[in-house]
Amino acid sequence: VLIAAFGNFLIPLMCGCDDMVFPRLNRLSYQIFLVSALVLILSFFVKGGGFGGAWTAYPPLSSVPEFSLTDWGASLWVLAVALEFVSFLLGGINFVTTAMNARAPGMKMMDIPIAVWFIVIAVILFMASVGPLIAGAVMLFMDQRIGTTFFLPSGGGDPLLWEHLFWFFGHPEVYVVLLPTMGIVADIITVFARKKLFGYRTVLYTAFATGGLSFVVWAHHQFVAGIDPRMANVFVVTTVLISIPLAEMLFSYIATLYGGSIEFTTPMLWALSFLFAFLIGGVTGIYLGASALDVYFHDSYFVLAHFHYTFFPITIIGMFAAITFWFPKMFGRMMNETLGKIHFWGTFIPFN
User: Fold this and answer.
1) Which uninterrupted H or E stretch holds 219?
2) CA 309/CA 294 separation, integer angstroms
């Protein structure tokens, strides 16, 4: 939603075009998303209630209604997820086409603002990774409603197949959400430090490297699921490797701040808090990437803390940073700085 909302708002403004290239496709994307939301809400009111198979939907808990005690609620949830992904897929086509083909005359590729680049890279990641999960959602729906056994060992299926399909999408999805936020933070830092982004090309290339590596790290979620130890070693290496371009991005942001005339406005506070929180999330992730340590940390509060120190900055902080930064542009009036800072400290301190 962060990508969709601010992508629609920022890409035409920053690329110098009047509107998205395919406005009707944009509307269709929104309408499918609305149907998805309605189906999800409906799932709470059918017999048995909403889906009870946890957010990762691991079979057999998710594929056998008797296990999760949610019959149609589980199926409607799967349908809602599939529709949402179709919606984002259509919207993503629009974003990439607009940014690449509808730029203002004279705007070269390396003139595109970093925030737009990061949204484009995130959309490409989403479009490349969502296919297996949509296929998995269809198979899961068939297991629930038709009686197939794609994920049930009793019928020759394999529950680990779902884990592979889910996390092959799930880990690139982390960077699908992260990169737009990092683009927003880069814009905020350059404005309120009164400096150009340090190493524009380096940041852009590391974003592409992060996106590419995100497709070869998914199995670090399965170190305790019985995968071959030799294969686990491969994913240990790729997981450590992906931390290098992300660290380079953080160094570039810190270098941008260094020597700048920093103004601690509300958007800048959100941006700085992102760097702090995401650094903690990133460092704890390196420990989980080592299979020898992950065996002990898996399913512990350490993983919970890592997850929240990753997704809190890239969703909550990213959203509020963007809203407070572009508030005057969106609403035609200046934001109250005092209330903004009260809101920031009232959110950031309790979280930590």
Assistant:
1) none
2) 17
Q: What SS3 class is residue 218?
A: helix
- Angle, helices 2-15/114-145, rounded to nearest 10 degrees: 150
Amino acid at 53: G
Compute the distance between CA of residue 352 and CA of residue 329 in angstroms, rounded to an integer.
31
Task: Give the sign of the dihedral formed by CA 133, CA 135, CA 138, CA 142.
Answer: negative
- CA gap 227, 223 in Å, rounded: 6
User: Is the pLDDT score of 69 beyond 90?
Assistant: no
Give the mean pLDDT of the chain: 91
Range of the domain at 199: 2-351
pTM above 0.85, yes or no: yes
What pLDDT shows up at residue 226? Answer: 79
Cα–Cα distance between 219 and 232 in angstroms, integer? Answer: 7
Give yes or no for a contact between 180 and 4, defined as CB atoms under 8 angstroms apart: no
d(CA 221, CA 291): 10
**pLDDT tens string 116-172:** 999 999 999 999 999 999 999 999 999 888 888 899 888 889 988 999 999 999 999
Q: Which helix (H) or strand (E) holds 120?
A: helix 114-145
**Whole-angstrom distance, CA of residue 101 vs CA of residue 21:** 8
Question: Which of 270, 291, 89, 274 has its CA nearest to residue 173?
Answer: 89
Percent of the chain with pLDDT over 70: 99
Residues 6+ apart with CB under 8 A from 193: 256, 257, 260, 261, 262
Task: List CB contacts of 331: < 8 A, sequence separation 6 or more.
Answer: none
Q: How many domains does the chain have?
A: 1
The CATH number of the domain holding residue 233 is 1.20.210.10
